[in-house]
Amino acid sequence: MPLTRRAFLKTTAVAGLSVGQASRAAGGQNESNGDTDTLKIRPRYYRWHVNEGQEWTETNTGYATLNWEIPVSQCALVLVDVWQRHYIKEPEERAEKIIDEHLVPLVKTCRAKKLEIIHAPAPEAARVHPNWINLDTGPKPERAADEWPPREFRYLSGTFSQYRRPVEPREAERQSLPPLRIHPKVEPLAGEAVIATGDELHLYLKQKGILFLFFAGFNTNACILSRDYATIEMSKRGYQALLVRDCTTGMESFESQATLAQTNGAILQLEMFGQYTVTSGEMIRGFS
User: Fold this and answer.
1) What is the topology classification, in CATH, of domain 38-45+63-140+183-261+271-286?
2) Model pTM above 0.70
3) Which of 19, 60, 176, 197 has its CA 20 to 30 A from that of 45?
């Protein structure tokens, strides 16, 4: 049964409080193993609450930050769809600039500080990469057959084919572009995992004892939100999901391109509904 808005807010608030407790408990275990490296960050979120004496209106809400000190051993940087190209000019140019100015320095620092780096390209790219960990091999529970919606409607075939979006005249040209692969500037090093699915990422994190996931990559308003190994789904699994907000950009429309409204809206969606954001500079400075 879906949560009501109030129940959701209560759930996420409790989760936010429990993070510190979980971190301290796990941190004590790490310290007993001699692991004392920590990452100090100020996760940003959007408050739907107002201060005492203020009217409860949208214009009186705003951003807030927390103070977290996290064991590095419980963290991972997850690189989502950091491709070597894009078929649209502007997001490709923005991504290249972000990779050069923010993502490469962050990856370099994380590698130096032994923070786990996990590469999460699309499944078809992951499964042909030599670093693919291939953990998601167990039997999958079968979904119960359901006659509704009808199969033809689900696939928009037969009598329902009239509701399909038209085939774009340049789609064949797009499909003929070089295959997508991980950008050479963040190509996985030996020992860095490549994962294909959310189940696989979960199994790997369980093996490693990782709780905090820092996401970077593209596109903010698509894969960063919707992949089964990305922010929202991994948050649902119980992990703390943080987006590195200067290491991402979205696909914009002709109306939103000038202000990057799609990108900024996707970031705000995460900050409003239970996730957090940080910057690459903050992470780099936050290593003890």
Assistant:
1) Rossmann fold (3.40.50)
2) yes
3) 197
